[in-house]
């Protein structure tokens, strides 16, 4: 038996491919950001909902809604056979927070308030090929209103998103929420008489406006376009006169919302759906103003499309407008950190009845990266005060020091490794980013004193100090044992 | 195509068996409790660690460590084949937070500080038969110190657990941490010369001390015992003189730690391992006293065993000592809410080297239930102020009211359902546990006033009011529009 065990190779200590661990500040910075966002959601009357990670494949639907990634999948498995029963259910890890919301809205439709405002924050899983910076488990942070057909719900989500970004730490002026309406675009496509099947292709072409500009989109909508690398991208095949209203729509952004709305009214021509969409945008614009959200924070922008096929009305996207350096050291805009819109079909899968819904999802990792890039992630990364151990028979004394410091609200710990090598203890304190080390040998204990070593000052001196300065050790002070807490507090302040 | 879709039955809107959703206060109360616990862990120098939900089966080990539930399993699935590669890895959802910690401690052993203090909070999954109140996803909340062989680490965990329980809201006197040491028991078993394979059976018998008392354990250790229902439970088969030292150990709890330690020293007789175990308990007792944790909070108790086979030294358990009513209305002690101990073998699986570790796991759901039973879960369950909609063309006005209230820090929302039936709006406010409703019809708008309805007072009046009192409606006040925030604040205070 013992021999058999010896033969077995040791298990590999690795995360599965595409998964990672989060240590220390990785966890606390994200938590602080999400807590700030939750405060705003809560104040807007949204209630938290936490569904389980596991859903039936039946409830979840097998495929991701994102049409641009048809290969994206879920992690799924089949339950063991039910005794006397037959095959077990297929279960899967949720791939987003919207599909579980749809299931909850259907399952608890008689119990939940209607409309139901909820927020959800938590991990989701995608069974995709992992890549650099692309993980198979990541956080989402969503807020949705289920059961309201009113654009007031969309306007509220946009206003709340602006508040949430600011409360998380993004300064006003550093973000802009752009709002569009699928109905306007659908009206234009309807009015121009294009084949119904082309709508998705047209959306995809418009989505490239940011990158290829008006002329590029015109080519993509008609006969095709050669990109920078020389590769030819086939066009949608519209006639130039069909492409014209789409381009008019795309470029109808005016100097302000009033101007944009006037341009849009002209661009939609006689389409009833288009006119309705413009009217909704006008209402959203008025409501945002009423809620004190100016056009410096949220604005109508007809070039915003959003990839997902299931949006049916207003769509919105929050962009960070400051520049950062990309991987190659080039300056570029930070870009999108949140997006959402109105979707009316998700609950219908379960109940057969249309349930209007609208919501937003914040890209947790991207927003956190933005806060870090601006130095605003705001965690207190300071390590604990480390009480070193000079005399292993006096552990209780050292623990009393740690307890006293903690009772005074100071983060503190006793060194718990092998105390033989004192250098290791200081290396440990360094690794812990400890601001202060406490030292008390037998001599100091007999004299009723402790040494308090300011490690931050010490590191600064060590970096640029002469041998004489180093020997003078001004970063270490001897104080009476009774003054331990006061002295540490003095250094930390 | 459309026809095919029609034929498909609608998916069932259900959570998978054994899973559940958490709404509103379910989420916030747990979060508040965990945040309070995390504050204490952080102050003790513990760093957060968040591993992913998914591990390789190889790293996780296939089986739960709990020997009492050998059928307990994990949710596992096999990755798709690697192209040109062969079979994919088997992945699984973590079943606790200790196995991932062991993997992390091995994987990052060159980067982590040593000793490594970490805490972790999050869901774990068990592929078990669900039962009433027993779910297949639940929270754990762990703190462990990896890489310290010193009992100072165990003492620190016990002191921290006491602080954490108090900071979460459990009053001093309402909990007790009981501490024992496996080495003492192992020493006794060793000294009595029982077959090595009997150790687990002896542990199991001792674990019943709470329920069956000294005489019951004596029977279980020797020839067997008839329980209340008349069923016979087979005994371990020890001779009475072999059972005697085990019983002496079990009943060696004295009036205080000093008394218990004296009794234990007598009970272990000549066993070296037993003597070492008693000495460790004496040190833990001294250290707890040094950290200001008195015997009213943590105490040596030889009757604590803890089921898990992997504990190798000190073990501890936190019990809540107040009584609650059980399902059948009988008074009983609340019981255990946390437990842990020293385990030295977990990291060894990966590296071949023993890494001493000790830690505690708080039963999140049980502690939360205890706080709720004591009315200490401490969430602010108050719903939002609801701004009702009398005139759907003036949504922007209502939204301005909501925004004003929120800007003043008051949780507030506008009714977003169909406003036609005003009764539905008040029913909605009721479902939202709203403290205040705001009403402004066209008439009030023209006069520049709003109606502010105190729903809590209103409900109190409605419950015991005569028709006259009801008509007088003292719970509703008309105030100038400009005084909206002040009036709502007055009611909420």
TrEMBL record, chains A, B:
Annotated residues for binding of L-histidine: 96-98, 126, 140, 144, 306, 310-311
Enzyme Commission designation: 6.1.1.21
Coiled-coil parts of chain: none
One term of GO molecular function: histidine-tRNA ligase activity
Entry-linked InterPro entries: aa-tRNA-synth_II (IPR006195), aa-tRNA-synth_II/BPL/LPL (IPR045864), Anticodon-bd (IPR004154), Anticodon-bd_dom_sf (IPR036621), His-tRNA-ligase (IPR015807), HisRS-like_core (IPR041715), HisRS/HisZ (IPR004516), HisRS_anticodon (IPR033656)
Main location (coarse class): cytoplasm
Biological process terms in GO annotation: histidyl-tRNA aminoacylation
GO CC list: cytoplasm
Annotated TM spans: none
PROSITE patterns registered for this protein in UniProt: AA_TRNA_LIGASE_II (PS50862)
Ranges for domain Aminoacyl-transfer RNA synthetases class-II family profile: 1-384
Compartments, record wording: Cytoplasm
Record keywords: Aminoacyl-tRNA synthetase, ATP-binding, Cytoplasm, Ligase, Nucleotide-binding, Protein biosynthesis
Pfam family, one: tRNA-synt_His
Catalysed reactions listed for this entry: tRNA(His) + L-histidine + ATP = L-histidyl-tRNA(His) + AMP + diphosphate + H(+)
HAMAP family (alphabetical): His_tRNA_synth (MF_00127)
Family that this chain belongs to: Belongs to the class-II aminoacyl-tRNA synthetase family.
Subunit and partners: Homodimer.
Name this protein carries in UniProt: Histidine--tRNA ligase
Primary gene name: hisS
